[in-house]
Structures are given as structure tokens and as C-alpha cells.
Amino acid sequence: MGMATANSGGSEGMELCIFDLRRGQQEGQELDKILFFFPADLPFSTQLSVIGLSEGLITFTRIFSPEAACELIEAERHSHVFYEAEPDIWMVMVVEKSKEAEAIWRIDALREVLKEIHSLFMMFYGPVREMLEKDPSGGLTRAHLYPFIMDYLSDFLVGKKTQLPSFRDCLKEFGTVQMLTVGREAAIEVQSLVRVLESGAGATHFYSLILFQDLLVSTTLSPDDTINLFAYAIQRLSPRALSSGASSWSYLRRGSTPSHVVVGPTFATVSVSDQFHHLPANSPSQDNSYHVKRPLQHNRWSKGKDGFLVTDIWGTETGSLIPSTPTIWLQQTGERMYLCAYQYKSLTLILLVPLSSILNGEQGVSLVKQQVLENASLKILKVEEKLSKGWGGENAYHVSGYRYLLIDDDRNVSRASPPAKVTTLAKESLLAMSKLREEVDLEKSRSKWDNADRDKDLEICIRVKNNAWVIARTTRGKELYMVLERANETLLYASDAFEKFSDRYCGGAFSLD
Amino acid sequence: MSAKASSSQLSVSSSGSGGLSHVYIQHPPLRCNVPGSRGLFYDDGNKLLFSPTSDQVFSWKAVPFDPHVSPTSDSISEGPILSIRYSLDAKIIAIQRSSLEIQFFHRETGQNFCHKCKPESDSILGFFWTDCPQCDFVLVKTSGLDLLAYDADSKSIHVVETKKLNVSWYVYTHESRLVLLASGMQCKTFNGFQLSSAGIVRLPKFEMVMAKSEANSKPVLADEDVFIATIYGRIYCLQIDRVAMLLHSYRFYRDAVVQQGSLPIYSNKVAVSVVDNVLLIHQVGAKVIILYDIFADSRSPISAPLPLLFRGFARSNSSSSRSTAKDIEIPEANISDPEAIIYGDDWTFLVPDLICDVSNKFLWKIHLDLEAISASSSEAPSVLDFLQRRKLEASKAKQLCLAITRNVILERRPVSTVAKAIDVLLMSYSLSLKTGSYLKGTKTEKISHSAGPQISIPQSGASHQSSATVDNESMNRSGNLSTSDSEDNAQFNSLKAISIVNKEKLSGGAESSSYEESQLISPSISVDEMYSLLFAPVEEEMVGDPSYLVAIIVEFLRSASSEKIKVQPNIYVLTIQLLARNERYAELSMFILNKILEPSKEVAMQLLELGRQNSQIRKLGLDMLRQLSLHHDYVLLLVQDGYYLEALRYARKHKVVTVRPSLFLEAAVSSHDSQLLAAVLRFFSDFTPGFKNTPDCRAYCQILNEMNSAVAV
Q1: What residue spans carry the Polar residues bias annotation (chain B) (predicted)?
Q2: Cα angle: B511, vertex B516, B518; to 5 degrees
Q3: Any chain B CB within 8 A of the CB of A75?
Q4: Which residue of A has its CA nearest to B642?
Q5: Which of A192, A220, A509 lies at the smallest CB-CB distance from B587?
Q6: The domains spanning A7-166 and A184-245+299-390 adopt the same CATH topology
Q7: What share of chain A is helix, strand, coil (3-state, %, to 5)?
Q8: CB under 8 A, 24+ apart: contacts of A253-259
């Protein structure tokens, strides 16, 4: 329930492509610019027409706005969402609009999906452009992009259909992290642990990320790197991700109602699983000469005896059976890091160790791991105990009577009503909220161009047909969205309820007058 | 030259003045030489050293220890003197004349009277004055204890109660108010009484442990083999077992005597002192001292056995070679060779920390060399632990603690080590806050004085160091020569001693104004001092990556939070600066949001200051101001950021009247936005009574009109 289906007439209603404007500029070489296309079994002519339209629009709009070209095409039945991932490397998503099929989109949410695909790709492989430079034929890039994005999209797969974030997900925010609220004492314990982890090896500093359940507790990474690693961690490394086997992006399904049956490792429908599990014959990336790691593959992580998580995705070190430690790229510093994840009960620790600091490969990594266990295991126990004690459970952040989404844009943090509670809202309320969010998105992007330094204060209250109040307020980098159903009819009441919430849960940030 | 230098060095070490040592006695001693002296006696109840002549008694106050104190004298009648003690109010002198007779002198009137025992069976072993409510005077006889009361009106003394017991010899210290009576063939069966102001407690009878040497010879315990030691307010008895070469220890509780394990001894003659709650075992034969801190369960010595050191001799002395030193008369000191004196045969150890050199008529006070002790161990946390328990030289201990902690941080020792060190300091501080010893000076002590030592309740640690003021004297039953007297360190003296130390040692300048109070009675370091004397200087000295110091501060905060100690904002401000130096803004906001750095105006201002580089941090500062309800500052900053209308709304909601309208108006004018100016004017006209009649209003209305007409043109 609740998921929009981008599927119509038997074919996937969604198309997703990545192309490079610097390639294939000569007549007859157009295919060269296509780096990725989904669905891959579309005829090239169709693929090229989608890309051709996009390219044309980009070229045209650049005349007026060289910095930010086309963002969106709204056609009668389709929306084309543009995202320039790297200079001249564009991602375009085409979704079909359909009221009946609940295919009502918030464009910014879709763009966030594109953004996340690219960020994660960068985290594991580095920039697309660099890869293209390494192998100008494009084969290497395609060989990486295809399985990666297919693995990514498989998380959105429900039954046979790819379900993208729709209006029903209006009280969620993609591309943000969710944080655990901790008391001062526990926070100090956490920091004490962080310092131990950080000071791992003399002069070089390690980075760390600590999660409790699916919530972030601490990070020493830059905000962007935190978002990426957090997204990966809750999908593939968290206790829930490990235990449920094949999981899906919890963005869509975290704490979801039982009707959201998680897709098993083998898909029910052969035709779909074909699409996701095998690289189709006509795919440009069908080239087995490249050794491609697939970090988003399901069921490839497990907990080792020493508490560290292990995976064979990165293969084994030559001449041994020990799985190689995964490596990732940090966006902020461009450094390559070993990723060591340790799990104790609900606590997941991710330690990033610079490759440059370790001279003897796996041996060095296991030495570091050993050191961590020696120095930090007591603290880990203590932190886990403290956090478990303060943990309010799945619905810890539910506020009765309210359905809300709170976003801190500066810190890329969001908090929302538990998904199970959001599903109790009427469709009208959700549609109104989705619409409202689009308005705010628009307003935000406008004010960004007008005045980059000043955040705009904004307040909108809507009385929906079903007598619900739908409220949005933004103030200096913070946004609060709220749906009040079965509430009193006066605006004063709605405003009071809002104020109360702000005072109680947001430190009064939204109560200016 | 070099040969001379080396020889002089040798002599220095041989004379002990330059050698390694943890305990020293400071020259000059208290000289109690009077012509015609018939020996020295120590009264530990009054901390007086007596030297009687044929018709006078000279007395020196031993506590506080002042080598230049002049004696007072009282006239007495002629006769043999076995022992002398003043009553606790110092009005009456009691002199034991024989094994049957005690003579009392009233000091003011000179009147005297005698108390005699029946000659048949009894003989007097000794006596002492007591502050217990039932009686004033206790007579220890071979047949038991006589408790006597003094009647001021009739100027007589009468028996109140008798406790019949066989007594071979006894040990008493005023410090513990405890009298132990030995009986039995081997003198190893003991009865004990504590006669304190709280009343009389009878201890259960107990036996001491004696190893057998050979099949038939049973060693007999002598009174010089048993010591009562008061450590951290707890009362212990230490007993020498010459056969096993062990020093057994027992601890006294109200209803039990519990053996506490044994310490090895390395000499046939052993003496015991307690200095500042540190147990000193003098291995007299080996001429070394072993130190124990009997606080926790550990019975391991604090450091290696080292000799006692003489301090304060003229340098010329030490440069002379060893052989000649013996012959040289040091005119001022009148001591021929210091080494010859160390542990001389007629040294008597007085409870708790005095040494009486009977032949030279010197009284020495034993001092701990905290510096040397702390330098002999590299285990910072345990050294700090030890130093934090020292009260006598609290100020010095404090300086040492600070220096040690500073060094471990500067040396970048592992965070866990530093964390332990900080734990020790903060726990000690927290304890001193609870017991009030941190701020209060001498007050606690008088109370404890009258309350007497606690024989009973197992004490909770260091808090009772202060209450251990009571002093003890190991009884002198040996004939005429020496009363083994003890000075006891009532804290008055120790305080005075400290202030002297303060003057000479601490003039270094490190100490901030915050402790002018030379009356430190606790070495604990407040959180504020941690900042000003530890973190701030360390931060200045430290080079390179500040994240190590951040880690240390986090540990400090953890420790403070677990001890529930409030932390001053200045440490938070420092933390913010350190994090910002590394541009770790994301972590900084986490610190703020989780309130690891608690909100305060200082913190908010620091955030705002940093906010010039990072707008997020500025917002954190603003939010903090708002949450602290610092409305005035908040409104000003909103205006500064250009949020005029928001500022006005906020000011109205929170009734901030301290911000002048002209501030907003000027800001609005400078924005060149006539709408804004109009809005601001309108706001004040509507909400500020009387605004319309102010010159401000007229002036700005005029400006608004000009702006509008300019637009119209």
C-alpha cells in the first residue's frame, strides 16, 4: 500500500539515463554519450530520443542560465527531472504522471534520488569523469554504472514494480540523516569513545561514524560524507539490514506496516529478476573484461566472530582467503579510506582508516582492528548500555496528535513522525502536504537565487477539504511541516498547536511571534 | 678540581643531605636543654615536652612545631619523677612519684595533694588524663584501671570506677583515646578501652599473633613492640613479630578487632610514625624507612626503602670529607655528625611524627618529601591519588598534582592515562566539596577534636583525615629517662606549617590569586583552577593538533559529569576554540546540541564570535541566546543580521524595552528599503505609546517621505 507505481501498460513507467555531453558529438557516434539507460531493453532509437530531447533543452536553457540549466520538464503525462551530477554529466529521470495510479510526485524528492545514486557511486568509485578519463572508451564506466544502479533500484522494487518516493512520502526527507537524541551524560560517553577511535594511530586521524539502531549518534565526517555513509550503513550494515537479509532503502520502508513485505533475495517474478540480476544482452555495459565490485548487492555483509562486519564484495587479498577490507572515497578530502564496521548489539561503529596510513595492507588493517578492540571495547559496552537505556523504541519520536517533518538544512538532519503513524493520514492530507512542500521547495530555490545569505522566513497554513490543517513554516535554515487531522477548525487553534510543538520539541526555533 | 668535586659529592650523599630520600627532618630541632634537667617527658594529651629540674618543670609546646619556642615553667616540689602530664585544661600537673603515688599540683595556686594506692598488690604502671564524661583521670595499675574524677571545689580526686584486670603493661595514645592492656604469659592477650568524649567503649578481648621460634621457647611481647597508629581516622595496632620478621596490623572497630595483614620488617628494631596519614616504618637497624599509604586494600609500600634525610645543614659542613666531619664542631647546630645521630640509640619516636633525641635533648619533627615521593613513580594516577590525600602540606601537594597532570598532558600520554589522572583529581574535589573541607578551613577540626577518634565506624575515606586530629602517645612506663612523648598534629599546627611552606616553596608565581588563602587544608583542585592552572596554560604551551586536548577535555567533562560537578563556561569556551581551530564545525554543533557544552552566555558569545566564519555556528549561538532568554542580546543580533521585522516581533512578544527604536529605524534607513522603514515606523507608532510625539518619529517620517518622493520622481 501507499507506494506509487511508476508502471503503466506493462512496461516500467520510469526511465533513468546518464549521459555525457562531451561525448558522441559527432554524427553517427551518438550512442557513445549514453553511459547508462534504464530500462536497458529499450531500443537505442528510443533511448537516443529521450537523451536528445534532454540535451536539446539543456543547450537551449544554458543560453539564459549558464550556471544552472534545465531542472525540469513538465509535460502533460510525464515529468523529466534533470540533475547535473558532474560538469556535463547529466542524470535525467522520466516519470509518468497518473492520478489513478497514485503517481503524483514531488520533483525535489525525485531529484534527491538521482543525487544519492551519484553520491554513493562517487563514494565507492570516485567521480564518473575520472573513470571516463581512465578508460575513454566508456566501457569501464558503463560496466560500473549499470550493476550499481540496478542494485540501487532493486531497493525500490516492490513486487515487480519500482516504487519511487511519491506524495505519500511527503513527510520524509531524502538525503538527510536521522539522529538519536541523547542525554548529556550519554553524549559525553559517546564523545569519549569517539576520541578513542579517532586517536587510533599516532599522528593520523581516523574518522568515525556511530549509529544506534538506524539512527546516527555521532560523526566526525563532513556533512556530505556523513549523509552518504549513513545511507549506506542503514541499508547494508545496520543490525536491521543484516538480519532482514535483503532489505530495501529504509527511506521508503523504515518501520513500515507489515503489508510492505520485504522483497526476498530471489524475486518472485522471473521477468523482473532477469532485469535486475542479469545484465541484458543489449546493455552497453555487457562487458565481462572488467572486474566490477558491487557494493550495493544484498546479503553480502555478515558479522564476523570478532564483531567486525565482513563482506566478500571486495574480493580476497591475493593469495589468501581473507576478504579484502572495503575502501571508499571521501568526498570532502578526496582521500581513500578503509571502511571497518564493528557491531555490538544495536550499536554500529564505522571506522574510516586512511589508506595512506597503513603500509602493509590487510595485515595493517587487522592490527588497527585489534587495537580498536583493545582500547575501546569497554567504552563500547558502556555506550551501548547508556544508549539502550535511553532508547525510546521505534515510536520514540512520535508526538501524538501530530504528523510532522522537521528538517535542519544546515546540518542535513531530519526527524519525522514514524512511518507507521504517517500511514494513518488521509490521502487528501498527504496530497495537500506534498503540494505544499512543492511550493516551499519553489520558494526556497527562488530565494536562494535572490539572496544566498539570507534564509527566508515563511509560514503557510492550509485547511484541507477533509478538515485537516496542513502547515509549513521555515525559519533560518529550519523547516517544519505538520499535518493536524481531526483538529479544531480555527486558525488560532492550529497556530497554537504549532507553537506548542515548536516550543516543546524545537527549542522554540519556530515560535517567533 | 674534579676529584674534589666528586669527593664533596660523596660526602653529601653520605651525610644524607643530598641523597635520595622520601622523609626528612628539618634543622634546626627544638632544643630543650635546661641546666639540671632530669630527663624528658612527653605529654601527648597537651602536646607538651617536659624537662623537670629539681624544683621546676619546663615545658615546650611541640605542636605546632616551632624550634624557637621558649619554655614555660612551673614550680613543683622536690622528689623523684617517673612521669608528668598536665590535665587537659592545663590547670593541674600530675606527677608520678613512685609505683604507688601520684602527686597533683594546682598550677595557679601551687596547692598540691597526693593520690596513693594500697601497697599490697598494686603498683602503678602509668596514668593519663581523659576527656571522657565519666572521669578525668585514668590510673593504669597491674590490677586494672582506676577511673578517677577531679573535684574542683574540694580540690581532691576520687575513684569513680575500677576495672579489675591483670595488666603486664599497657599502651595508650591520646590521639586514639585507646588504651591497650597486655596480659598473659606471653603478654599477647589484650583488653582494650576507648575513653573518648562519647563515652567508654570496651573492646572485645583479643590475642596477637606470635610465631614460635623453637619448640619450647615462647617469645614474650614487649610494650615497645606494640604501636597504636591513627591513620585516616581509623585506629590500627601494629605489632612486631620478631620471629616471623613481620609487622602484624589490626584494625579496631567498636565491636571487633580485625587482623589486616602483615608488613615485612628488615630490622630487629622497628619504630612507627604517622605523618599526614602515611605510615612510616623505621627499620632502625637498617636505617631506612618504608612508607605505606594504608588507605585502600593495598599493602604494598609507596616506594623503595630509603634513609631518613637531614635538611638544613650548612653547606660547608657537607663539603668537608667524611672522616673530618666527625671532628668538626658545627658551632651553631652543636651537632657533630649528622649521620652519627640518625637513628641513634637514644632516639625515641613520639606519636605520631616526632623524634626525641634524648641524649642531645633535641626534638625533631618528621616531614614527608612529597616532591621526592611523587618523582619516584611514573604512575601518574596513583601518585595523584596519594597526593590528594595529603593534608599537611596541602598547598604543596596541590602544586605537585597540577604539575604532574600538566606534564602527562604535555607529554601526550595515552588519553586513558590522563583520564584516570583527571578522575582522581575530580573525585577528590567532589569529596572535598561534600565534606566541606575544600572551602572551610579549620572549623571542622575543633568538632572532631571533641568528638574523639572513631574507633567504630569504618570511615569513608579521606574525609576523616581531618578528624584524625586526636593524638596519641605511646605510654612511657620506662623509668625516668624518657617519656616517649608524641606531638600530635592538631591541625592548627599543621596549618601553620603549611603557611610557612607556602611562603618558602610556592613563591614561584604559578599560583593564581585565587588561592591567597594559605590556609589550604585540602589539596583538591577546583574545576575553576583546573581551567586556569591546567587547561589554559597547557593550551598555550601545546603545539600542533588540538584534538588531543579536546579528547582530554571530553574525559574531563565525563569525569565531572559522573561526579556531578558543575563545570565553568570557560572550559566550554576553550573547547569551542579548539574544535574551531580544526574547523570541526559539525562536531562542534553536536557538542552544543547535545549540551555537552552546557549553554551559557559566555558559550553563546563565543559561538557568535566564531559565527563570522561559519553561519551555522552563528545560528547555534543565536539559538542559545534565545533559549537562555537573553532577549536583549538576541534582538540586537537579529537586527545585526538584518532580520528587522523578526526582531521587532520578538521584542514585542518578550517585552524587550531596552532596545531603542532608533536602532531599528537607523537600520531600516540604511537598508534603503522604504517599505521596511514604513513597517518599522508603523510598528513603533502602533505598539510604543507616545512614540508619535518623539523627535525620532518626526525625523524618520520625514526621511520616509523623502525616500518615497525620490521613488516617485
Answers
A1: 451-488
A2: 100
A3: no
A4: A454
A5: A220
A6: yes
A7: 35, 25, 40
A8: A253/A419, A254/A214, A254/A419, A255/A394, A255/A418, A255/A419, A255/A420, A256/A419, A256/A420, A256/A423, A257/A1, A257/A419, A257/A420, A257/A423, A259/A1
For the domain spanning A403-505, the CATH number is 3.30.450
User: Which pLDDT tens digit goes with each residue over B670-710?
Assistant: 877 888 888 888 888 888 778 888 888 888 888 888 888 87
Predicted pLDDT at A480:
94
> What is the predicted pLDDT for the residue at B687?
81
> Which residues pair with residue A38 across a beta bridge?
A16
Lowest-confidence segment of A449-458, B32-41, B209-218, B474-483 by average pLDDT: B474-483
Fold of A184-245+299-390: Beta-Lactamase (3.30.450)
CB-CB under 8 Å, B587 with A195: no
Residue B16 has a pLDDT of: 37
Task: Record the cell numbers describing residue A299, joined without a space.
Answer: 546479503
In total, chain B counts a number of residues equal to: 713
* Grid cell locating A120: 554513493
Tell which CATH classification among 3.40.50.2300, 3.40.50.720, 3.40.50.300, 3.30.450.70 matches the domain A7-166.
3.30.450.70
Q: Work out the average pLDDT over A100-123.
A: 90
* Residue A410 touches chain B, beta carbons under 8 Å: yes
How many of the other CB atoms lie within 10 Å of CB of A201? 15
Task: Specify the 3-state DSSP secondary structure of A455.
Answer: coil
| Band of pLDDT at residue A315, cut at 50, 70 and 90 | confident
The domain spans of chain A are 7-166, 184-245+299-390, 403-505
Cβ-Cβ contacts under 8 Å for A335 (sequence gap 6 or more): A329, A354, A355, A356
Q: Which helix (H) or strand (E) holds B578?
A: helix B569-581
C-alpha cell at B304: 623503595
Q: Among A220, A223, A477, whose Cβ lies nearest the Cβ of B619?
A: A477
Nearest-angstrom CA–CA distance, A239 and B525 = 45
Q: Inform me whether the C-beta atom of residue B650 falls under 8 Å from chain A C-beta atoms.
A: yes
Residue A211 — φ and ψ, nearest 5°? Answer: -120, 145
